[in-house]
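FAQ: What does a ligand-bound record look like?

Like this one, built around 3-(1H-indol-3-yl)-2-oxopropanoic acid:
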Amino acid sequence: MRVNRKIPLIVMLLVTVSFVFSGGFSSPAQAKDKPIKLTYAFFAPARTFPGKQMAKWAEEIEKRTNGMVKVQTFPGSTLLGARDMYDGVLNGVADIGLGSPSYDPGRFPLTSGVALPVNFPNATVAGLTLLDLMMEFKPAEYEKFKIITMFSTEPGHIQSRDAVKNLQDLKGMKLRAAGTGVPVLKALGAAPVGMPMPQVPESVQTGVIDGTMTSREVLQDFKLAEMLHNVTEYPTVVVTFAAVMDQKKWDRLPDKVKKVIDELAREMAIWTGQYHDKQNVGEALAWSQKNYNLQIHKLSAAEKAKWDALLAPMVASWQTEMDAKGLPADKFLDRLGQIRDKYAREYK
Ligand code: 3IO
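The answer part, i.e. the structure of the complex:
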């Protein structure tokens, strides 16, 4: 079809310019009648609890925007892996990325405070505390990002090939954790390695590691119970998750869409925490006991006191580290305690 000569050149120019400024075809904020397409990447499989969160979020967004937004999910590192998640979002590889700030405590220093041994009773309380703290402190580590939602695992447990009943058993054991869990394992005398979750099954299989410290649903969701027959009943630290979007991309979204996404941030923290705490972990433990004779080892009170004493200095050394970076560690930990205790009364 030929260009209609009656359309003045200036109008055509304006249309072109506004198209380019709105971000062109790749922008989520395109023409009003066309659905806005958002790609959403996650590094682990869809069957895992963060993967289920991603699917639930996508479903809710489509429903609540009456189809104005379509979300295409990419679980299992099909678009971005654990280590390139946050840069991938900034580089526009995915519109939204769900990563674990715990994998990179240097990049997310204040967030790493939530993964200290501060006795969260469960994932729901930890996740809501995390989200509230981030909304309150607005740390510079998320400067280029819009936070879509945050949540966490339950406090991690040691899951190992050989039984760990005391510090002697743990001595020199090659255990894997998220980056924020490494100092915990080190303090307890193990030989820790930081490694993203998707690499764990193969690393156990090949003997690179003798186990892992994280939430216990991985026994089923990553089939680790096949090889790891022992869990030590000593809750340590949580692993944090943050789904983010590039701030500039967010700014271009219609207000209606922003509102729906913002409303969901908290709901998803609760939904994910409750699924993990009330169903996911319990089912995995029962499945592992039934199919793989999983053994759960309780620490004696005297043994527990020794472990607690080894972890106690971690909070103070984190404070020193944060002070050196000019970050408000004391205030952050004060608020963490207050918010944690408030939610602990609500979510048992
Ligand atoms: C985790 C990450 C991805 C999918 C399922 C998961 N369950 C627990 C974690 C926590 C984690 O990433 C870690 O490294 O301990």
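Follow-up question: can I read anything off the structure? Yes, for example: The domain at 157-237+286-346 is CATH 3.40.190.170 (D-Maltodextrin-Binding Protein; domain 2).
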